[in-house]
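Objective 1.3, modelling of assemblies. Example input:
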Amino acid sequence: MAEKMTGAEMVIQALADQGVEHIFGYPGGAALPIYDAMFQQDAVQHILVRHEQGATHMAEGYARSTGKPGVVLVTSGPGATNAVTGLTDALMDSIPLVCITAQVPTTLIGTDGFQECDTVGITRSCTKYNYLVKRVEDLPRIMHEAFLIATTGRPGPVVVDIPKDIQFALGDYYKPDLETLRHQSYRPQMDGDADAIEAAVDLMLKAERPIFYTGGGVINAGPQASEHLRELAELTGFPVTSTLMGLGAFPASNPQWLGMLGMHGSYEANLAMHDCDVMINIGARFDDRITGRVDAFSPNSRKIHVDIDPSSINKVVHVDLPVIGDCERVLSEMVRVWRSKTNQPRSEAIAPWWKQIQKWRDVGSFNFKNSDTVIKPQYAIQRLYEATKKQSKEVFITTEVGQHQMWAAQHFHFDKPNHWMTSGGLGTMGYGLPAAVGVQVAHPDALVIDIAGEASVQMTMQELSTAVQYRLPIKIFILNNERMGMVRQWQDLLHGSRYAHSYSESLPDFVKLAEAYGGKGIRCDNPAELDAAIAEMLDYDGPVLFDVLVEKDENCLPMIPSGKPHNEIILPDTANIGDIIDEKGRALV
Amino acid sequence: MNAHLQPTGSAYFITKETQEIERHTLSVLVDNEPGILARVVGLFSARGYNIESLTVSETEHGRRLSRITVVVTATPRTLVQIKLQLERLVPVHKVHDLTTEGASLERELALIKVAGSGDHRAETLRLADAFRAQIVDATVESFVFEVTGKPGKIDSFIGLMQPLGLVEVVRTGLAAISRGQQGM
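Predicted structure (tokens):
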């Protein structure tokens, strides 16, 4: 049943019909009709951000913590270009976003009009799909199709660019039928091939040194996928490791958990990956932070790769057994097939493997030398984790990018999916603060903490103002070492400790800054006072900027340097990291 | 298994790709929508794939479908990636590798301008006849030939025209279709 309305009203109606409750945005000339339509309704609540990049990261945090798509509304020109970083971030990490960008009127397109930019051209390579709406008749279909494409298959960002005259134009709004809506060419394969799954289980049944290598795909496939993963791990008795993006899919408290793998992953996870005979990759993509040197990556294993995106198969690492499909469905099938073949875990056959893993575990690769005079960043995260465990609230963690992010992944432990929000693929400094805002919007009663670095957090600091405006009590836990710690570490590792621009000579007073924004500021530099200060932060009902002054030159270890295989990992007791990498390795990123 | 034997597209590959570069013709069936060509070409440039030739035109007006014929050079491993990456684009329906999927026909059209007089002119016409090139424009000083065929035939014809007063060439790029009764 069609209803007459303007394009702007259609946008809002479509959002309401999609069940969208929150939208993150910033108005501007070309977007005014949509803002006007929004003003006259209550279904969709708008969160006014301070910069459009913030809106995109908020939407990402919102999406990642709820499983629902995040929605962004920005104006033409700079509004759209400011959103590009967040769109790219969402593409790399497969986060469902719908970003509505306003555009100059169709008659002005191509004339270099005020605040005009080629939004579809600019965003073509950083979205899963994008549209320029040229006729109001197409708008209802495009709006709904955008949600379908963003949320199905391998999720990702979709841009809908709407010229101002289309927003004013009158047309018939209808809610299209899902089946007719679907692009004929867009058919993500959800069910894994039955023979491939059977073959995978057969391979697993013969494994002597198996490992589950899981990734963000398990999170994206929904909480049921995590349930199936736990079930499969229990049935098989196999060890489980995960990428940065997949943390929480498998509980860190489970004895089968090996910790994160990859460049700063645990010794046991990386060595087990290197020495395994059967690798079961579920929803991960053999990212270069995981594989290290590819031609020495897990040289003697048979590799099973479950992924919803066929182009992930054999892209980086050659696999023996690809299974294309949704992780949730494939895992549930694997559980069923395993059950049909045996009711025993392979505990006995893999006992020597577990023994070996235990030896690696005993190395204690996440250990660090603590201090009573200066706060070690790892210690700060450990204390934060302990303090949050006692909370009755749900705890969500976001991070920025750098050393603190890796330490958070190492020392903060997750037992549930969708509680860990971080920028993995793109590595976007400035992600964490706005992401925390987005998470808090979705979960008003939860405890949302951005574990941050003092450099990253300044990239999107202005969103603290958004948090204050909407009374979102996010906690920003800054591990302040007065350096871009990871850059400094790489300069030690690769560039003779010549610290080219990796430190700041004029940091703001974060306590005063917090107060200037209308939040609370706390500073702590004494390990003995840390617990009390954390408690003060957690007890405060409002946004807190917590400036933890930590050890300035701590290295993030263990580390697999670029160009090295997993078994050449640098452990924490290494005295001088500057002598490890040869000339060739220096060229790598 | 044997990851070390497999060349890789990772940022970390240290060994060079050992596989031979091959030339393949891909036929890509796409929705004829604004920006589709930019999407396909953008994919090639973003991921560093090589295009040798590319042609595109609407082929089924009713269903608004276009066929893109693209000739690429890559290692066998990258060729698979190219096909999968193309299929990942939302408006792409199908990608067929005509080089590997059975017998196929390939044709190209070229317009070739040759200027000259006297003996050269007579020789030009003899060769044009041998290549079944049509004269589509003639002046007392020049010809424009239309020649169709496999790219190799066109290359040869152009080569022969070179010393006979070749002025300029324009080529359509390759159109290709599989043999037999099956369509895409």
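Strands of chain B lie at 22-31, 50-60, 65-74, 92-97, 104-115, 134-138, 142-149, 166-171, 175-178.
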